[in-house]
Every structure is written in structure tokens, then in C-alpha cells.
Design a protein that fits this description.
Blueprint (H helix, E strand, L loop, with lengths): L2 H16 L20 H15 L7 H4 L4 H17 L2
């Protein structure tokens, strides 16, 4: 899966889950201010990512630093690389 495919999958999955306009999603889109997510939505966000990419992301320090879609993109791309390297 290419980085572009990962980004597209993240954006489409989150747009569907949180009923957000896919066209308005950019790397600079903030989760809390722009998308209107709250702390409970973050739990759903983690579940969406785990399901979409068949990986666990709970309780990782990096997940606490995520504020924008770009942060999510970088996190998932790095996680996928790490998992592929562990094979």
C-alpha cells in the first residue's frame, strides 16, 4: 500500500465515520477545532484506524500527540512501516 493510498483510506474512513466533508480534509485539518471531535470521538477514531489497517494503536505515546489529519497520516504510515519491518 502506497503512502497516497494510506492517506486516501484514512481520509475516507474518517469522513464516513464522523460525517465530515471529504473534500475539506487536508493534512492541516485539525481534529478538535475543524472536525469538531471530542475526547470520546478519539476512541472511535482509534477503532476506525485499527479496523481499516488491521493493527493495534492503543496506548502508544505517539497517538497522544495527534492534533491534525497530517499527524494521523504520519502515524499510520510509520506504524505500517514498523509492522512490515517486523515480518
Amino acid at each position: 500500500m502506497t503512502e497516497q493510498e494510506i492517506v486516501a483510506k484514512i481520509n475516507s474512513s474518517l469522513a464516513e465515520e464522523f460525517e465530515y466533508d471529504l473534500a475539506a480534509m487536508t493534512p492541516e485539518t485539525t481534529l478538535f477545532e475543524d472536525m469538531g471531535l471530542d475526547s470520546l470521538d478519539v476512541v472511535d477514531l482509534v477503532i476506525v484506524l485499527e479496523t481499516a489497517f488491521n493493527m493495534k494503536v492503543r496506548e502508544e505515546e505517539a497517538i497522544r500527540k495527534i492534533r491534525t489529519l497530517g499527524d494521523i497520516h504520519e502515524f499510520v504510515i510509520a506504524k505500517k512501516r514498523q509492522l512490515e519491518g517486523d515480518r
